[in-house]
Amino acid sequence: MQDMPQLGIGTFRLEDDTAHKAVVDALKVGFRHVDTAQIYGNEEQVGDAIRTQNIDRDDVFITTKVWFDHFGNDSFIASVHESLAKLKVDYVDLLLVHWPSPHDKVPMEQYLNSLKQAKDEGLTRHIGVSNFTIAQMEKAVEILGEGEIYTNQVELHPYMQNRGVAERAEELGMKVTAYMPFAVGKVMDSDVLKDIGNKFNATPAQVTLAWMKNKGYHTIPSSTNPDHIKDNFEFDKVKLSDEDMERIGELDNGERIVDPDFGPEWD
User: Fold this and answer.
1) Active-site residue among 40, 111, 179, 217?
2) From its phi and psi, is residue 219 left (phi > 0), alpha (psi between -120 and 50) or beta?
3) CB neighbours of 38 closer than 8 A, spacing ≥ 6?
4) Which residues contact 137 (CB under 8 A, 6 or more apart)?
5) C-alpha to C-alpha distance for 42 and 183, rounded to whole angstroms
6) What is the rounded average pLDDT for all residues in the chain?
7) Starting at the edge strand that comes first in sequence, how are the strands of the sheet with 149-155 ordered?
8) Quick check: 83 pLDDT over 80?
9) Is 255 inside any structural domain?
10) How many domains does the chain have?
11) Residue ranges of the alpha helices (H) in 93-241?
């Protein structure tokens, strides 16, 4: 069973031809993890893009996420089948619940057991959660048992390093997957990241991705610019020292970008 590549291409806010082209460009430069979601409305374009590249199914890792509208009724599994049809695959590699049920309207036992059912039925290889707090991660492990939840996908970037959640996820045996790693482009303005990048002729984005890898995090940056996509894939030229890591650590100011009214009480 394939492990999730450390670096993937995210498709949040990418629509229609833009989503299709971004995924094609990413696969061409070597990305082999593509992250989408039901709510993004682009699963069809993502699936089409993957098919055009004639990559063996076992060589591409596909993640999608179930929206919470499907938690509290019998449409959870049906919605997964719909996602698979749009993606034109028999299974995804990773299926996440996109958010905890807002205000616990649907009991966690109910939707996590539906998630596990999707795995048991072969619709996904791995299952995980997204935007879960420490307490919610702990409860999820109580419900499904250790080793079932593959990852918690959370907002994490140099300005909001989410250390408590990341550390607890790892203690609980979950991989940390960072979304929005560039803080919607804000990392590009960081004097610290620019200064570190100058040593390697690298961009602040490449420095950020090297920092992510050093921390042991998976991440899914998104871009529509083919040059940026290529640069992101080639971040490995950046070799950060302990001092570099400390300097990036000091950028943390808790600045959360994604904070919808239906979100949980953050740690």
Assistant:
1) 40
2) beta
3) 64, 65, 66, 67, 70, 79, 82, 83, 98
4) 129, 149, 152, 165, 168, 169, 172, 174
5) 22
6) 97
7) 9-10, 33-35, 61-66, 92-97, 124-130, 149-155, 175-179, 218-219
8) yes
9) no
10) 1
11) 108-120, 134-144, 163-171, 191-198, 204-215, 226-233
Q: Hey, is 130 helix, strand or coil? A: strand
Q: Tell whether the model's pLDDT for residue 72 goes beyond 90.
A: no
Cβ-in-10-Å burial (0-12, 13-18, 19+) of 207 comes to buried
Strands (E), the chain: 9-10, 33-35, 61-66, 92-97, 124-130, 149-155, 175-179, 218-219
Domain range for 48: 9-249
Residue 179 is among the residues annotated as catalytic for this protein: no
- Which domain CATH number covers 59? 3.20.20.100
Is residue 3 included in any domain, yes or no? no
Is 258 part of any domain? Answer: no
The tens digit of pLDDT for each residue in 189-210 reads 999 999 999 999 999 999 999 9
DSSP class of 255: -
Instruction: Confirm whether pTM is higher than 0.90.
Output: yes
Q: Does residue 192 lie in a domain region?
A: yes
Give me 164's structure tokens: 């408590």
